[in-house]
Write a structure and sequence with these properties.
Blueprint (H helix, E strand, L loop, with lengths): L5 H6 L2 H15 L5 E7 L13 H11 L10 E7 L4 E6 L1 H24 L4 H19 L15 E2 L1
Parallel strand pairs: 1-2, 1-4
Antiparallel strand pairs: 2-3
Helix pairs in contact: 2-5, 4-5
Amino acid sequence: MARHPKWAQRFLSEPDFDAIADAIKAAESRTSAEIRVHLERRVPRRLLRGRHDALARAQHVFRRLGMHRTAERHGVLIYVAVEERRLAVVGDEGIHGRVGDLHWNEVRDLMLEILRENGPPRRALERAIEALGRALAEHYPRRPDDWNELSDQVSLA
């Protein structure tokens, strides 16, 4: 098993990475949609023309990870800039048109609430994944011919 960088290990333990991948698998077992979690040490300013914006960075990472290429445009990304404690939730146009900014903000706020109470990051991510999974299953229920279009592993930059 590949070890994660120290900054990521300070945020999540190795078993936490596995548990988050398992939470994604469980959520995706009820939907044809795709969920990813992406961690970065901090929001890179050079890529955002001086803007220090987690949402803009999440949108960039979403495209870089190829999440806009899902068959039904129903991918969702949870983005966390670990050291800056910034996060964002971004959905592709298919699901965004059905749930909108309000839902993404609710999921983000759920995570923030857990983290502000000094809850473990793993729990915040698992709860967010569960909430996303419920909404995605409502709009994109799993079909017999569904297949996993994107990795369930946490990605890092």
